[in-house]
Amino acid sequence: MDMIGRILPFLRRKGVEISLRRYGIDALGAMAQGLFCSLLIGTILDTAGRQFGIPWLTETIASIGREPHRISYTVGGMAMAMSGPAMAVAIGFALRAPPLVLFSLATVGFASNALGGAGGPLAVLFVAILAAETGKLVAGETKIDILVTPLATIGAGIALSALLAPPIGRAAMRIGALVMWATDLQPLLMGAVVAVVVGMALTLPISSAAICAALGLTGLAGGAAVAGCSAQMVGFAAMSFAENGWGGLVSQGIGTSMLQMGNIVRNPRIWIPPTLASAIGGPVATCLFRLRMDGPPIASGMGTCGLVGQIGVCTGWSASGGGSAADWTGLVLVSLVLPAILAPLFCAALRRIGWIRPGDLRLPDPVARVR
């Protein structure tokens, strides 16, 4: 007990908070932002360059190595290559790591992402958290902090990457592959399940984008995830338009449905309409239009946020010369039209029986009241 009495104040002093919120919400959400600012932005730049023939986005700006292993990078490719460091630094920022720890995490992120393979993002999440907390414990404790803190952070990070990243990466990819295999096998059932689960994760204060990236969720399962996330965002935006106006429509429709989280806590029944829209939109995407995510997995969990989910789907089309009329019809219908119609209809039914009352969907000022 005496040891625990000494350890707990030390952890508090060092800012080490072992909690589900700190690691499962703060760190995971920050990781998604790091992914967005590297992998996703790089993908968007590469796609824009190919689609619109922009030379400075398609030309090689740097090459590394010698033939036959020479790797060439475009602007977007360079951004994508930095996804590991970006994720780790973002996680360190969320954990309030001091500067020397934060900067050292760039090396840790690169190592864990590379060793984690296709499941690298999940490996980065675990390894960066452990390395950051290790660095925080020693930061400022010696007179040679400039040496000790980076050595401890990088040393712990590299060792943990070698030990944990490969099995974590393999496990993540097996889970993602299982979900994608099940969706290909049972597109009706799994289309609904994936759409509902990922869509709800988007609205919760966790990161659906990081979850999809960690599991490498692409293909039909990725298409179902796009449908589910879009249903939450567009659904909430459409059904709350009378209370929130144009500001609410934009902030939820291309921003995030997470803005409704406070209202959901007060009345969970308001979550039913967009969730039902997700359950319908997912199978429509997988069974009727065979909507696939062939872009980066993170885009599967973005929905209509900046239209990133839709851009990710179009990325796959660009390899085959662009989508067909049926592809575009399916994407617009699943992402925008269906949730904009279904969620308000379900909401109207619940208003009729008194489950949703006036004001239940109102967002706090100044988010919504822009008319």
Written account of the structure:
This protein has 371 residues and is mainly α. The chain has two domains: 2-171, no CATH class; 186-352, no CATH class. It has 16 helices and two strands. It has helices spanning 2-13, 20-52, 55-58, 75-81, 83-94, 99-115, 120-138, 145-185, 187-203, 208-215, 219-239, 241-253, 261-266, 272-288, 308-318, 325-352; strands at residues 62-64, 71-73. A two-stranded antiparallel sheet has the order 1-2. A hairpin with a 6-residue loop joins strand 1 (62-64) and strand 2 (71-73). Helix 7 (120-138) crosses helix 10 (208-215). The chain is globular, with a radius of gyration of 22 Å.
User: Which strand-content bin applies to the residues?
Assistant: under 5%
Poorly predicted segments = none
Mean pLDDT: 87
Number of helices: 16
Strand pairing plus helix content: what structural class? mainly alpha
Oligomer: single chain
> How would you describe the shape?
globular
Count of discrete domains: 2
Main traits of this protein?
mainly alpha; 16 helices
Secondary structure topology:
Blueprint: H1 2-13, H2 20-52, H3 55-58, E1 62-64, E2 71-73, H4 75-81, H5 83-94, H6 99-115, H7 120-138, H8 145-185, H9 187-203, H10 208-215, H11 219-239, H12 241-253, H13 261-266, H14 272-288, H15 308-318, H16 325-352
Antiparallel strand pairs: 1-2
